[in-house]
Design goal:
By secondary structure, the protein is of the alpha+beta class. It has helices spanning 13-18, 60-67, 81-89, 97-101, 141-146, and strands at residues 2-3, 22-27, 32-37, 41-45, 48-55, 70-75, 105-106, 113-114, 119-130, 154-165. The strands form 2 sheets. Strands 1, 2, 3, 4, 5, 6, 9 and 10 form an 8-stranded antiparallel sheet that branches. The protein has a two-stranded antiparallel sheet with strand order 7-8.
């Protein structure tokens, strides 16, 4: 992969995250975990280019995201849809998700990412906070629909410190 400047990012983040999905990966060279995500965002916060991701506490990736200083976001071509489905439907506690999905972990930066990705964003954690039930303003609709078990996500804001793309 080759480094590129975020000003030349060409994909639509609403489609790339919401419809095509991404992998959130955290860990180190010895052990890491990944999960499929269809929630998240990009923007500018505190004068920095950032990505915002959401991870539920019961997800195995949560442990790695809590422990590590960096995480990666990987985006793939449609032909990897089955791999993304697998990474979102089984736990890394019981499965070697990258191996079963046919993905090759790479650790040349501060967080693992995948060789098969078209784009990998390396993010340094800046902030984390749990979503709170009392902060939802829609009269309970989101809570009842998205959180019937009250297992709210933790929000992570990460500065995008490196952007990599397949040439």
């Amino acid at each position: 992969m080759k480094e590129f400047h975020l000003d030349s990012l060409t994909f639509n983040p609403f489609t790339a995250i919401g419809s095509e999905w991404m992998l959130i990966t955290a860990g180190n060279e010895v052990k890491h975990n990944t999960m499929t995500a269809s929630w998240g965002g990009f923007g500018v916060l505190w004068g920095r280019n950032v990505a915002t991701v959401y991870i539920r506490p019961q997800r195995y990736t949560f442990e790695f995201a809590e422990r590590e200083e960096y995480f990666s976001l990987c985006f793939f071509e449609e032909k990897y849809r089955a791999a993304l489905n697998l990474c979102g439907s089984v736990s890394g506690r019981e499965h070697d998700k990258p191996k079963e999905a046919g993905l090759t972990p790479v650790y040349l930066e501060k967080a693992p990412y995948y060789q098969e990705a078209t784009t990998a964003l390396i993010c340094k954690k800046l902030y984390r906070q749990d979503l709170r039930e009392d902060c939802f303003l829609d009269g309970g609709g989101i809570m009842e629909t998205m959180y019937p078990a009250r297992d709210l996500h933790r929000v992570y804001v990460g500065e995008i410190v490196k952007a990599l793309q397949k040439p």
